[in-house]
Amino acid sequence: MEVGTVITTFEGPSPSGFSFVVTCNGREIPVRRGQFVELETEEGKAIASVVNVIKTNRYFMRAESVKEYERSGKTLTSIFPADRWEYIIADARIVGIQTGGGLERTTFPPSPGQKVYEAEPETLARFLGLNPDGGVELGKLRHHELPVKLDLTKLLRKHVAILGMSGSGKSFGTHVVIEELLERAREKGRVGVVIVDVHGEYSSLAEGGGADYSDHVTVVRGRDLQIGVPNLSAHQFREFLPDMSEVQARELQRVLDELHREMHSGKGPFGLDEVIERVEKNGEIHKQLQQALLGWLFGLKSLGIFERADNPNWASAVEPGEALIVDLSDIISLRKKQILIAYAARRLFNARKNLRAPPFVLCLEEAHQFCPEGTAISKGVIETMAREGRKFYASLVLISQRPVRLSTTVLSQANTNIILRVTNPYDLEHIKQSSECITGDVAEMISSLPVGEALIVGEAVNHPIFVKIRKRRSRESAHGMSLEEAAREFELRSSRAREDAKAFM
Ligand SMILES: Nc1ncnc2c1ncn2[C@@H]1O[C@H](COP(=O)(O)OP(=O)(O)O)[C@@H](O)[C@H]1O
Ligand SMILES: [Mg+2]
Question: Residues 6 or more apart from 170 whose CB is under 8 A from it?
């Protein structure tokens, strides 16, 4: 649809931008800031983004005459055909010209008089690098009737960061991404999904009440997670116990080697108790060293997560098109959570490296707890995955409300950023610095985004876009309920319980 005509201004038209007078008067709001338009140029079809819209009316230019007329009790529009003289000028920034292969910078201005059109959905999809057939559908492009279907490879070949303040819609958006991954047809290529669910909100995917994904979702509770001691080297013990010395680790390795030999010669797998016993009985080991080592081992034992075998079996826990939810909501100790995730991530990544696991996505809620800018037990392995993951199609989705606290190494490896509302100036500045696509005016828009709307920048899109994230197909868990809903649900449940009790008596 035609929306306007290019006009001459002091600055343009230039290769970088132009202004146009809006000529379509059919709609109440003919053109909006942030909308995409297209027009022909000598270099080909150009796509531009409307950066400003200004209304003008000659009749209202002189304050003193407006005041005079209004004071006489009449309005200007009742005396003159003033409303017919209102017109709209839109400023547009050219983002590129469509070429066969993609997008190129413009080097020559469009001509004054050139007609400007609303960008066609197909043109936009191609221009943005979306994948209408088989992309991950996040929602709709703001101001356009275009489903935003992000190409799976572009999105997940590298990593994704989902950032935004608390309540901005990060977890909701992540659910949408996961639903899309679970619904993919086999022929389109499916990845496995693992979710580190700190607040216990993802099991709702398997609960029904909306679309039911229970056939494709497995939930493991934090209290059931186990680390198989025979799978650990002294080096890995040290990852959990960063203060363990080199000498202590060497001694521990000796004990582990011994236990491994026995295990392979027919004795069953061993647990932490056997390791402790061996260290205690070892007469050759220096007393002080022994005590220190025992101290570390008892400390680990008290966490209650070290057993003879892993649970789950990480290598087989990931299936294409399926999700494994690691529900950590029943674990309070951050250290314990970090140890479990450090271990799980390493096992998953190794399983993927030797092709026992399919390409997978590891979604980390509260990512700043697991890979902060400071130290954390799980930081090393997450950084390794951030650096090397793409070689093996093991990608990270990092979800965080405190980008400033997130490891810069990890954040800089996140090639697509999905940014929801952020108002904290430090976080905003950090986000701005992590991506050159985020200009001052875009940053300003981030702070005024409504809940459920996101800015997407980076690899997955050729140009930053604002997206209204679609509704979830699965039902929200109690976490997402309003206070009213939660209160109603509570009363409903307790009245049912009373009735049950009565029926029983
Ligand atoms: N795209 C959306 N559409 C509709 N409602 C949304 C959307 N995103 C978020 N919400 C609402 O906002 C609430 C908070 O979102 P949530 O994802 O839990 O925030 P965050 O994880 O960023 O703290 C949700 O429970 C939901 O009701
Ligand atoms: Mg959340």
Answer: 162, 163, 164, 399, 400, 401, 420
Whole-number Å distance, alpha carbon 161 to ligand 2 midpoint, is: 13
Q: Summarize pLDDT for 99-145 with one digit per residue, the tens.
A: 766 678 889 999 999 999 999 998 899 889 999 888 999 999 999 99
Per-residue pLDDT, 315: 80
- Is residue 320 within 8 A of residue 361, CB to CB? The reply is no
| Cα 94 to Cα 107: distance, rounded to the nearest angstrom | 10
* Ligand 2 centroid to residue 451 C-alpha, Å: 12
Of the candidates 112, 48, 160, which has an alpha carbon nearest to the alpha carbon of residue 390? 160
Ligand 1 atom nearest to 164, measured from its CA = 22
Question: How many whole angstroms from its chain centre is CA 38?
Answer: 30
Which atom of ligand 1 is least distant from the CA of 471? 3
The confidence score (pLDDT) of residue 9 equals: 93
172 ligand 1 Cβ < 6 A: yes
Q: What's 147-225+312-474's CATH class?
A: alpha beta
Q: Hey, where are the domains in the chain? A: 2-119, 147-225+312-474, 228-307, 475-505
Answer whether 149's CB lies under 8 Å from 137's CB.
yes
Q: How far is the CA of 422 from the centre of ligand 1 (A)?
A: 14
For residue 214, what are the contacts with CB-CB under 8 A and spacing of at least 6? 205, 206, 207, 208
What residues have CB less than 8 Å from 302, skipping those under 6 apart? none
Task: Please state the rounded mean pLDDT for residues 278-299.
Answer: 89
More confident residue, 265 or 440: 265
